[in-house]
Amino acid sequence: MAGLLSKERIVAGPGFNRWLVPPASIGIHLCIGSVYAWSIYNPALTKIHGVVTSAAGDWSLKDVVWVFTVAIVFLGLSAAFAGRWLETVGPRMVGFVAACCWGGGYLVGGLGILTDQLWLLYLGYGVIGGCGLGLGYVSPVSTLIRWFPDRRGMATGMAIMGFGGGAMIGAPIKELFIRMYYEAPQYLGGVDEVRLVTEAGKRFAQVAGGLREVVVVGANEVAGMYVPGPEGVYVVGTGSIGVAQTFFSLGILYFAIMTIAAFSYRVPAAGWKPAGWEPPDESRAGRRMITRHHVDIDQALKTPQFYQLWIVLCLNVTAGIGVLGVAKTMMTEIFGTTLPNLVDSAFAATYVVMISVFNMIGRFFWASASDYVGRRNTYWIFFALGIVLYCSIPLAVQRVSVHPSVVWLVYFYCATMIIFTMYGGGFATIPAYLADVFGTRYVGGIHGRLLTAWSTAGVLGPWAITSLRESALQRAVNDVASRVDPGAFQAKFGAGVEHLDQLVAQKTVTLARLMEIAPPGTVDPTTGLYNSTMYLMAALLAVALVSNALMRPVADRHHMRDPQG
Questions:
Q1: 154 lies in a domain?
Q2: In angstroms, what CA-CA distances link 83 with 138, 447, 467?
Q3: What CATH code is carried by the domain that includes residue 135?
Q4: At 250, is the pLDDT very low, low, confident or very high (cuts 50, 70, 90)?
Q5: How high is the pLDDT of residue 331?
Q6: Rounded Cα–Cα distance for residues 71 and 458 (Å)
Q7: How far apart are CA 317 and CA 311, in angstroms?
Q8: How many domains does the chain contain in total?
Q9: Which of 257, 265, 272, 189 minimizes the C-alpha distance to 229?
C-alpha cells in the first residue's frame, strides 16, 4: 500500500495532459468543502430530543457551532504540519490520509450524536475530521501551481474552487438525508387540549399514566420545523431528527469519493514546464511584485511579509467564517419573522447553497483576475468593498424590521453574496500571492504554515458572532418580557415572570414565544441580533487593508543561494 501511495509512483510521463489533474483536486475539495454547510446541521443538532423544537436536554446553538470551530482549528494545525510532509511524500499519500480522517471523523461524530455524547462529536467531526480538512486542503495546491506556472492565480482558483463549492452540493444532500431519516415525535394535541405542568422550568404532561417531558410548538415556530406539522404539544424523546444517520451515510460516501480522487493525482517531472512558456523577465516581474527567487519554509517565518499575509488571511477569514457557521439560523432569525410567508427553513437552506455557489465562483474569478490586476490590488478591492457592504447590512435590517419588504431581503442577499465571493477569492488568491512573494519551490509548505491564520479565524469568527448574538438575545428577551402582561406570561408558561432566567435556561421561554404575547406594536428585536457583528467585521477588514497596503518584496538576504534558487 505504501508503494502505491509513494510520490515516485505518481510522476507524470512525457506528453501527460496537465488538465487531467484539476478534476482530482476539485473532487477532494468538494467533499471537504461541505464543512461550509455546517449550519445545515445546527437546527437538527439543537433538537435531538425535542425533534420539532429544542427540549431542555438538547444542546445549545453555541455548543454545536463550536464543533465547526474545532474543525477549522485542526484544519489549520494539520495543514501547517502537512505542508513539509506533502513535499516529502507527495499529494496521493496526503490525499488518502485525508479521506480516512474526513470519512472516519463523520462516523465517530455520528456515534456521538446517537449516544448523546457531545465530546465524541467534537472528537470525530472536530478533531479527526478537522485533520482530514487540512490534509485534503493542501494536497493539491502546490501540485497545481507547478502544473500551471503560467497561470498561478487560475491554478490556485481551480485547486480551491471545489472547497468553496462543497456546500453547494453538500447542503441539499444533508437536507435530503435528514428529511429521509426524520421521524416525527408523538403528538398529544393543541395547547388547549393538554394539561401542562411546569416544574423547574420544564414542561410536563400526563402520558400513559405518568408525567413525561414535552415541548410546545407555537405559531411562530412552525416555520422552523424540519417537516411541517401542527402547532401544539409533543413528547420529548420520541421520534428522530435523523442527523446521526446522516453522519453515518456521508462518512462512507466522502471516504469513497476522496480515495478515488487521491489515486488520480500526478506530479510533473523535474524541470517540466508548459510548451512555449518562459518565466517573466525581471523588470515585468518586479512591477507585479513577483519574485524569481525562492525562500525556504523556515526562512519565510523570519520575514515581515509572512506575518503581514497572515494578518490579511486571518482577518479576511474571520469576517466571513462566523457568518458561515450560522448562515441558516441567521437568515431565519432576521427575515423569518418579518417575511414568514417567504423565508422558511427551505428558503434558509437554499441561502446556504447560494453562499456556496458564490464562494466557489469568487475563488475562480478573483484568483484568475489577480493574474492580470496583481494580488495586492485584488486584496485592496476585497477590503475596501467589504467594509462598505458590512456597514450597510445593519441599515437594511433596521429598515426591514420597521417596513417589511422584499427589497431589503434582496439587498441583504446580494450584499452577502458579494462578500462571500471575496471571502472565497481571498482563499484562492493567497497561494499565488505566496508564490509571488516567496517563490514556488516551497510554496506548499509555506501555505500550510500560513493556514494557522485560518485556525485562529475559526475561533475568532464563531466566538464573536455567537457571543455578540447571545448578548443581544439576552437583552432582547429581558426587554420584551418587561413589556408583557404578567398574567399573560403566567398563562403562557405556567410560571411567573420572576422565573424568567430559569425558564429561558430550560428553553421553555424563547424570544419567538414571548412575541406571541407581546403588546401590539412591539417591534420584534430578532432582526437586529447580528448588527454589532457586522460592524465588528468591517473594523477587522480595515486592519487587514492596512496590512496589505504595507506589503513590499522580500529582502535579498532571505533568498536561497543554491544554483536552483
A1: yes
A2: 7, 7, 33
A3: 1.20.1250.20
A4: very high
A5: 84
A6: 8
A7: 10
A8: 1
A9: 189
Report how far residue 80's alpha carbon sits from residue 446's, in angstroms, rounded to the nearest whole number: 8
Whether 89 is covered by a domain: the verdict is yes
The C-alpha cell that represents 335 in the structure block: 427575515
Q: What is the largest CA-CA distance in the chain?
A: 87
Phi–psi pair at 208, nearest 5 degrees: 55, 45
The closest alpha carbon to 532, from 449, 473, 490, 455, belongs to 473
Residue 188 lies in a domain: no
Mean pLDDT of 65-69: 87
DSSP state of 303: S
Give 210's strand partners. 207
Whole-angstrom distance, CA of residue 111 vs CA of residue 322: 26
**Cα 241 vs. chain centroid, distance in angstroms?**
22
Domain of 456? 12-183+240-262+291-484+519-556
DSSP state for residue 215 in the 8-state scheme: E
Look at residue 134 and tell me whether its pLDDT is greater than 70.
yes
Write the Ramachandran bin of 406: left for phi over 0, alpha for psi from -120 to 50, otherwise beta: alpha
Torsion sign (Cα): 54, 55, 58, 63:
positive
59: three-class secondary structure by DSSP: coil
Cα distance from N-terminal residue to C-terminal residue, the chain: 34
Q: How confident is the model at residue 451 (pLDDT cuts 50, 70, 90)?
A: confident
The whole-chain average pLDDT of the chain stands at 87
Residue 38 scores a pLDDT above 90: no
Quick check: 78 and 128 in contact, CB under 8 A? no
Output DSSP code: residue 293: S
Cell of 213: 417531558
User: Which whole number is the average pLDDT over 165-169?
Assistant: 80
Rounded Cα distance between 173 and 186, Å, is 27
Supply angle C-alpha 201, 505, 329, rounded to 5: 125
Q: What stretches of 439-522 show up as alpha helix (H) in DSSP?
A: 443-450, 452-483, 486-493, 500-505, 511-515
| 190 domain-assigned | no
Relative orientation angle of helices 91-114 and 22-32, to the nearest 10 degrees: 20
Cell numbers at 59, concatenated: 444542546
